[in-house]
């Protein structure tokens, strides 16, 4: 009897230690870091059919440049549930968040926008962020833009937006052809795709505090494209945001390494990206 009581007491003790340990772990990963308002994560959004692996080279470039020591991941399920892997670390105010869409072959930009917005909201709830930056490649840019369509005053404020190889007004071989699309002097396309028209409300609502960098590739083969997206389609972003953004600038990358899928692994892109994100940090 005495032995059974002793084992029971020991068992309860182990259980309490386990609960206590779980409580500490949860506390360490929770949202009560000192100076919470100073944390400004940079979210990377990959393209269609891709994954967070496409973001790793750029993410590590930011670490090597001294922007942060923290890379964490936000995995978004097909149902839109966001799961964070890793955590913010004290006094490392510009962590990188690699966003990984599990349903990356979904072709709805509206759905990608909901996922992007849900990721920002998850970080807001977990860490009480008030500001954030974004970097998108290909379809990741549509996630960013459609996410902003559902923005509200309660959301964290977007400070910097980097768009790489954005197909805002069409994709070659689908609804565009080389050298066909034309832009007016203010960047307005002479012909608009439905997905582009849906973004027109941003001309009145795009956040005024946001600085925008638009990077696009030109293979220098006469197509004025990166092989998948015409330069005009990428540059059509200007008409949507330049009238309200804090600043808007474009950077054309030229040569074989300016091909659409190579742009997220391009050293020249890294240099431009780092300079832009490090400015005023």
UniProtKB/TrEMBL annotation:
A Pfam family matched in the record: DUF915
Record flagged with keyword Hydrolase: yes
Gene3D superfamilies in the cross-refs: alpha/beta hydrolase
Record's keyword annotation contains RNA-binding: no
InterPro entries the UniProt entry points to: AB_hydrolase_fold, DUF915_hydro-like
Record keywords: Hydrolase
An annotated Gene Ontology molecular function: hydrolase activity
Protein name per UniProt: Cell surface hydrolase
């Amino acid at each position: 009897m005495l032995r059974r009581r002793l084992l029971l007491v020991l068992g309860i003790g182990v259980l309490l230690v386990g609960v206590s340990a779980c409580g500490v772990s949860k506390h360490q990963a929770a949202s009560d870091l000192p100076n919470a308002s100073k944390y400004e994560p940079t979210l990377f959004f990959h393209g269609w059919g891709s994954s967070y692996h496409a973001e790793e080279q750029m993410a590590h470039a930011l670490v090597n440049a001294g922007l942060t020591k923290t890379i964490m991941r936000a995995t978004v399920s097909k149902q839109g549930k966001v799961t964070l892997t890793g955590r913010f670390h004290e006094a490392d105010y510009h962590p990188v968040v690699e966003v990984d869409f599990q349903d990356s072959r979904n072709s709805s930009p509206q759905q990608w926008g909901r996922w992007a917005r849900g990721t920002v909201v998850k970080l807001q709830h977990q860490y009480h962020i008030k500001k954030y930056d974004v970097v998108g490649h290909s379809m990741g840019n549509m996630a960013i833009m459609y996410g902003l369509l559902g923005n509200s005053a309660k959301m964290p404020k977007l400070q910097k937006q980097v768009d790489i190889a954005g197909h805002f007004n069409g994709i070659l071989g689908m609804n565009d052809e080389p050298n066909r699309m034309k832009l007016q002097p203010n960047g307005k396309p002479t012909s608009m795709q439905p997905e582009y028209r849906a973004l027109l409300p941003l001309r009145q609502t795009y956040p005024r505090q946001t600085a925008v960098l638009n990077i696009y590739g030109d293979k220098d083969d006469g197509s004025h494209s990166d092989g998948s997206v015409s330069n005009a389609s990428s540059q059509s972003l200007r008409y949507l945001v330049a009238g309200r953004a804090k600043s808007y600038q474009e950077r054309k990358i030229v040569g074989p390494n300016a091909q659409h899928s190579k742009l997220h692994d391009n050293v020249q892109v890294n240099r431009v990206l780092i300079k832009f994100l490090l400015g005023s940090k």
